[in-house]
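Teaching assistant here, posting this on the class forum so everyone can see the example we discussed in section. The complex has two components, and the goal was to see what a joint structure prediction looks like when all of them are supplied at once.
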Amino acid sequence: MNHLWLTAKADISESLRSKWFMVYAIVFGGIISLLFAFGLTESRIMGFVGLSRLLITYIQLSMAILPIFILITTVRSVAGDRDAGVFEYLLSLPVSLSAWFWGKMVGRFTVVFLPVFLAMAGSIVWGIIQGMEIPWELFLYYTAFLFSLSWCFLGIGMLISTLARSPDVAQGSAFLVWLFLLLFLDLILLGVLIQEQVPADFVVGIALSNPLQVFRTASMLLFDPQLVLLGPSAYLILDHFGQFWYLIWAMLYPLLLGTVTATMGYLLFRRGDQL
Amino acid sequence: MISLKGVTKTFKRTTVLNGINLEFAAGDRVALIGSNGAGKTTLIRCLLGEYQFEGSISLNGENPRENRKAVLERIGFVPQLPPPLKMPVQQLLNFSAGVCGCSTDEMKAVAAQLGLDLEPLYKRPFEKLSGGQKQKLLISIALGRPTSLLIMDEPAANLDPEARHTLFSLLEKKQEESAMLISSHRLDEVASLVNRVIELDRGQVVLDDRVDDSIDLSSLLNCNLTTTRIEPAFSKAIGSWGFSAGADETQWSGTIPGPDRLRFLGTLSRYAALLAAVEIKEAKQ
């Protein structure tokens, strides 16, 4: 366990000094600052004003940016470290492969989740200072969703990093995975549904297994409980799950998917060449 | 102590190591030489358990793939190219000592012997150090803990003459407890450090020979040189060996580490026409 924490700490230290982390932190901190600066808390959508309005916009923007950011930075830095000889040296030290892999995962998770969370938490602190009404329930749900989504794409990123032998291949593969998941978002699925080429349950199945769609639907569900914005597929989702169980699914499924993909990555990493 | 039996490594369809059989015992100081692509780095990575391979490797009966932690606890490694680590020096020392289960004290002591003052460097990222500082720190980490095998890829390449001498002295102290595997493109770079030479060519051992090891690793040689005229290129080259000039820059004197004599003579040979007198004597320590 000690080796795992040492590896996590070393990875955090490496990341904090990287350019990608600086850009990453600036982007998420910048989004919150811009949303405040443009007076988003004063505007209204579907009855939501103040911090609720800001958090809804933030979560939608996060969905667009966070997965691709995590995928690209993870595969670039992990595959890049392997390419540059960092792995060759650090893996010559007597650290177990499990402590190394999961330590990297924990360290990396800390640096990708914290800026996203701290930007959101910062808006809450600002709201308290300004005397705004604080949407605690929304904040806690969004924290859980972002936690799950970050873990999920980190796991996928670690799997890609293990499979790809060069940073360029890893980056290209990560981009393709993200594009593939984007393809199966609700707009395209709705099109398929309308054409009635496949059974509705099959389309809903795809929607439920796509972590991007799961996150998107769950975040919409919190401010639009009838999923009016989602269209007809909402009926299927709500009929199958109900609101409460869908939110539980949205928190647990990405966590599970991230863990499964990371475990696959670890098993491949342990079995093959580490360099 | 270390045994390689039928070690074969293939990348896709290219066989990089082809049935390597070798035995190393404590006290063996082995030069692993060969041209680019001969398989030196791959062999080292197999020994470090970083590659899958066919055949078997054991260090005191343990396999580096199956018992990697136990095996690597007894291997010190100095790579040829320092890794581009961003972590600060202090953290690298703590990480290395932490995973090796030892304290940083001995590593710091080795660094001090090599002339590396760590105190002002603790917070500096490793990649921001100079080439020589990186090399000294990696050597300190490898030598500052108990090992049965030292694997070094051109370890003295970036070191000044004084640090080279210290390194050779440290290696002399280590030779009873550790075997050493020193990888290099050129034998003359490492010849005086070793008592055995293994040459690889296209993944096979083409030479495995014992060599004279009567040179005392910690010995020093006093050297006086006279040149026929002042030559700036010579002054620069000899200055890099730590030599000091007499009044008119045609008289030079300095000290060279004993194991570096061949390398030093190689430097002198480039200026043979310029040399009027060369005197080299074993220094009393």
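For the discussion questions: Chain B has a mean pLDDT of 87. Chain B has two domains: 2-210, 220-282. Think about how each of these relates to the inputs above.
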